[in-house]
Structure prediction request, 408 residues.
Amino acid sequence: MSDEQTLLLVLVLLYLSDCLVWVRRGAAALVTHTGWGRFRIAGIEILSNHRGRAMALNPLSPLSTAFVCQGSPVSLSPDGACSHAAQGIDDLGPTGSEPVSVAPWKDAADTRTQSNDLLIGAERFARCSSRGLALSLARRISEIAGLPETEREEAIQGDLARALDSGRVAERIEETRNATRVLRPLCAVLFLFLFLVSPVAVWQHGFARAIVPLLVFGLPLHVAVLALFYRAHLRLHPAVREERWQHLVTMLLCPPMAARAADIVSRHALDLFHPIAVARALCDADDFAAFAKQLLLHLRYPLGAERLEPEARAVVEWSRETTVAAIETFLRDKEIDPEALCELRLPPDAAYRAYCPRCHSGFLRDDGECPDCPGVRLEPVEEGTRTGSAAAQGGENGSCTPTQGVAP
Ligand SMILES: [Zn+2]
Prediction:
C-alpha cells in the first residue's frame, strides 16, 4: 500500500469512528440521513451491553444526524431521589451491575456533576447521556431540595410538563436548525473535499503537485467549519465549555472528524426534553404511534420493580406513575387516545390463548410469564381482542412473537 493510500485509509477510519453513536439504556436515538428529512427511531446496532448500545450512522451521508434523547435517568418524588428510573426505552430494570441509591431531599441539596455523572455528596449517584443533561439535573435537584416540603411535588410535575412541552421542543428544534444552517452544508463540502476531491487530485497529479492547491482550498474550509462549530456549540450548549474545547481540538487535529461537526453539535441539543415529545415533533405518524405504544406499555409494566428495596421502590413507582399520567395527558392533548393506541392487536385467526401485556406477544398457553419480559404475567386473550392487525405471525413454537414494535 502506498503512503497516499495509507493516509486515505487513516482518514476514512477516523471519519468512521465519528459515525458511531453511543446510546445509553433509557435513551432513544432519532436518526435521519438527509439533514432535516424524515427521522426514524432506529439505526444500525453494532453492539450492546447492559449499559447501552453503539449504533452506526450512514457514513456515506455527511448529512446523517442522530438526536439522542433521554428522559430523566433518575426518579424524583416528594420523598427524595433514586438513582434508578423506569424509562420505558430499552429498559432491563435494576440489573444489579450498578447499585441503586436513594437520597432523601435533605442530602440532595449537595448535588454536583463530574463529567456526565451526578454526584450526591462525594458518591456517584447516576450517569446521564450528556454533560448538559447532568448539569441541568444537578442544578434542578439542588433547587428542589431547597424548596419547602409542600412545594416539591408541584416542582417535579412542572419539570415533567416542561420536558413534554411541544412548543418548547419546536423552539429548540428551530434554534438547532438555525445554529447549524451554514455548518451542515459546509460539513458536506468538507466530506466531499476529503474523500472525493483530494484522492482524485492526488491520483491524477501525484501528491507533490496536488498538495499545495489542496491546502489552499482545504485549510480555509477546515478553519471555517471549526469556527462555525464553535459558534453553534456556544449557542446551543453555553454551559458545556470543556466538551466544546475537547471537540474543537480533536477536529483541529483530525479534519475527517470535522466533517461530522454538525452532527456532533446537535446530537444532544434536545436531551432536556422527553423522547416522546421529540419523536412527536420529528417522526411521521406511524413511527410515532409505534414508539409511543411501546414506551407507554413498557412504562405501565416495568421490569424488575420487585428487585428494588422498599424505599427505592416507593420513589421509582411514584415517579413512574407520574410520568405515565403526564404522557397520557400529552397524548390526549394531541388527540391520541392512549387506550386505543395501546390496544392489543392479534390476528383474528390465531389460536393465542394468552398475551403479554408489556410486549403484546401472543401465546398458545394459558398462563405463566413472558420469556421476553421477566416477571410479567400473561393475561387471557378475550374474544374481542382478536380483531387487530394480521402483522403478527406465529413463531417457531407459537409462543412469543411481538405483534408490533420498533427497534429501540
Ligand atoms: Zn413480553
